[in-house]
Design brief:
This protein is mainly beta and 172 residues long. It contains 2 helices and 8 strands. Strand 1 and strand 2 form a beta hairpin.
Amino acid sequence: MEITEQCVAALTWTLKDTLGETLDVLDEPVEFLIGGGDLFARIEEALQGHGPGAKIDVHLEPEEAFGDYNEQLVFLEPRGMFPAELEEGMTFEGLPPGTNPDAPKDVLYTVTEIYPEHVVLDGNHPLAGIAIRLALKVEAVREATEDEIGRGTAGTGFFKVQAQAPGGSTLH
């Protein structure tokens, strides 16, 4: 079966920046709904018509991937507004009450620096502003279920960053 709209593709990949530094490797196949919200449009276009075993290289500019870096999403907030066990790399969905009221509420913020009196929080995706190269391998292709089509996902978003406790964020 070849990849078309409304099918599910199981993919593995190596993600690199334009200097060739490896940013992420997915060795175990993950399923993505083609035609849903799981993948960037440019990746879906590149996958069309390919079947299991296909290897595809895709270059994505920031505007095709995680967007340009937005300095307006960087905030300096009072250290006392955050837990004592705060560590660089921790993420928060929105900012705590009492912090900058102009900060978007639906953004995932990463702690990038900690000072005695202040904390620097960045609401940009960790890969914002970076052109990326993705070496994809199609491991399997199947028909999407009605449930997957209805939800618009096979259950995995492309490089979704999830809020977590200490230890950083997850790219996939």
